[in-house]
Amino acid sequence: MAILGIESVVYGVDDLETCTRFWDDFGLAPLSRDAHESIFEVATGSRIIVRPRANTGIEDWFDWPGVKLVTWGVDTPEALEALVRDLERDREVRRDEDGTAHAVGDDGMPFALRVWAKRTVVSQPDPVNAPGCIQRLNQHRKWRSRARPKTLNHIVFFSHDYVKSFEFYRDRLGFRLTDHSEGLGVFARADGTNEHHSIFWVNTALPVAPDAQGFMHLAFGLEDIDEVMLGANIMAERGWTNTSANSSGGLSRHRISSAIYYYMDNPGGGEAEYHCDTDYLDDNWVPRAWDWKFGALLWAHRTPSFFRTDHDGWDMRFDPEGKSLEPFRKAALSDLPAGLGQISAQDEHAL
Questions:
Q1: Which tens digit of pLDDT belongs to each residue from 275-320?
Q2: HSE (side-chain half, CA atoms, 13 Å) at 41
Q3: Measured between alpha carbons, how far is 282 from 38 in angstroms, rounded to an integer?
Q4: CA-to-CA distance for 278 and 91, rounded, in angstroms?
Q5: Residue 43 backbone dihedrals phi, psi, to 5 degrees
Q6: What contacts 81, CB < 8 A, 6 or more positions away?
Q7: How far apart are CA 102 and CA 92, in angstroms?
Q8: Distance between CA atoms of residues 331 and 137, nearest Å
Q9: The whole model's pTM is what?
Q10: Ordered structural domains, the chain, with CATH
Q11: Residues sharing a CB contact under 8 Å with residue 33, sequence separation 6 or more, in sequence order
């Protein structure tokens, strides 16, 4: 029994035409479009469904545009029914005609489960040369004309109690704890995928976070850094920016997950992320607890000041039982680690 990752997401947007153009430029494969919705997919078959906010068919559980529903893909009908039976012990589960199951987590966020025939993707990134380490001899690198996302790797939500949000997914849906950025949020992996995380919950108590639960960003996996750079350049040429207050602007690499990334503002809400070269894990992975400053990101052209100086207390420790989570259950500003509740304006891009 396994959840294979994100089967689909439904966006509720204010301008369907503009949002459709965004995903066209982003490199997603169009499946269908009309006056009521646009549907795109990536190579694995994960779908992005874009609808006007007033007509998503989903209760609008937060007040700004963005992803209103995530449907998680389940590997078999038997696995889906087992998950549904367990959920029905203490909450309502609504079924669609196609068998899709809808429920609400302990934090109030809706989700759905559906049997999914996830497509296999085979990537062939070119070997990388370095001084003294020749991996590609007498061979030219491939040349690309477009970025084409292969996977829908993960989604990020703001949560009032990120520990509670995670524990529901762990205990009821089988997700694995990957890493904990103490006071900032927690990363979790669906049990049927090897990508570092399938979902990340960010603490709404942070000074730069909204006061309400809701959507932050969606991340798409590409083959290599060439494809990330090409996608970023094409999006910039077509007028799409990464200048929002919460953007970690520029081409950079995460310290947690190791992924090379590039975020951009999404007119449909939140941000869209290109990334590549993320960590891949299995159940032999030992979760880690990170000092929030040390774990946030590695390099960016708007690098916060605390990344440019040495700081005492930057640390990472192994946390196989997730004990680091307990102090941050429904954390208030007064409970956050030193400095996390008083981020300066010039440093807000760290998140």
A1: 999 999 999 999 999 988 776 666 555 655 554 545 555 679 999 9
A2: 10
A3: 35
A4: 35
A5: -65, -30
A6: none
A7: 8
A8: 54
A9: 0.93
A10: 3-120+148-350 (3.10.180.10)
A11: 20, 39
